[in-house]
Amino acid sequence: MIINDEHYNLESRKDEFLNSKPFPHLQLKNFLKKDFFEDFQNTKEDTTSKNSGKNFETDVEDKKWISKNSELSSITKKIIDELSSDLWAKNLRDLTGISDLFCTTVGNTDLANYHEMKPGGLLAPHVDHSSEPKTGYPHVLNIVVYLTKEWDTSWGGGTDLLNNKGSKIITKVPYLPNSAVIFLHTPFSFHGVSRINEKAKFVRKSIYIDYYSQSFDPYKHINLDFKNKWFEHGTTFVLPKFNSYFKKENSLYRKIKLDYLINKFFN
Fold first, then answer.
1. Which helix H or strand E contains 14, and what residues bound it?
2. Is the peptide bond before 22 cis (omega within 30 degrees of 0)?
C-alpha cells in the first residue's frame, strides 16, 4: 500500500469529519508514504497532446488542465488505483456512515482524475456533477490529493469551502504538500480554488477521485446546516459577476445553473 497506515483508521476521526463546517471535511497530512511521494516528483504527465487531456481558459476555469486519457503514468495510476480500491472505500464508509458508498469503475477517460493548474490559475466556486455516469447513483464524497512537493502556501492553491449558495468562503483548506482533503459532496457543497499567485514557481498538481452511494437519500443520517436532500444537477458554477451569465461564451454555464435552480426548487 502507498497510503500511510495511520490513514486506514478514519473511523477514529468520524466526529471531526461530521462536525466540520461549512460541511463535513477532513485534511489528512503525510498522506502518501514518503518514498512513494518522493518518487512521484520525478513523474511528468503529457499535458501537451490534444488526446491526453483538456485545457481551460474561461471565467471560471483558468490555466487549468485535466487528464482525459487512461494512459497516465504508472506511478499516478497507483495512487488512483488505491483510492479506488475496496479497502479504501470501506475506510470511507466507516468515516462517513454512508454504508453503501462505492467508487465508480468508469475510469479516467470519463472522469478526469489528474489535474494541473499553472500560476494564475483559478477554479471558481461550483458543485460537481450529481450522479455516477453509468448508474445515476448520487455523488456523495470527494478526495483531493496535493502532490507538488515544493509548494509554498503563500501562493494559495488550497481548496475553498463555501456557504450553501457558493457566495462566501467559510473555510480554506491549505495546499500542504502530500496531504489529502476529503469532503462530503451534496448539491450545496460549493468548493473551488481561489486564483493562484502569478509568482508561484511551480505547477499545482493534484489527484481527484469521487465516490457514490446506492441510496437516493444518502445524507439522511447527517446533520447539515442546509437541506440534506440530493437532486440531479450538472457541474454548476457560480460566475464572478451576475452579468457574466449573459456572455455568449458562458451560455453553457448559464443553462446548467438554470437547470440547477429549477431542480433545487422542486426538491
1. helix 14-18
2. yes
Domains of the chain, start order: 5-265 (2.60.120.620)
> What contacts 231, CB < 8 A, 6 or more positions away?
130, 187, 263, 264, 266, 267
Q: Grid cell 455516469 — which residue?
A: 133
Q: For residue 27, what are the β-bridge partners?
A: 181
Phi-psi region of 97 (alpha: psi -120 to 50; beta: other; left: phi over 0): left
Beta partners for 102?
212
Q: Which residue has the cell 487528464?
A: 67
- By the 8 A CB rule, do 110 and 133 touch? yes
Specify whether the CB–CB gap between 185 and 141 falls below 8 A.
Answer: yes
Chain segment 32-63, per-residue pLDDT in tens? 999 999 999 998 988 877 677 889 999 899 99
State if pTM tops 0.85: yes
In this prediction, residue 46 carries a pLDDT of: 83
CB atoms within 10 A of CB 105: 8
Altogether, the residues listed in the chain come to a count of 267
Task: Quote the longest CA-to-CA distance of the chain.
Answer: 51
Tens of pLDDT, residue by residue over 142-154, are: 999 999 999 999 9
Element (H, E) at 251: helix 251-265
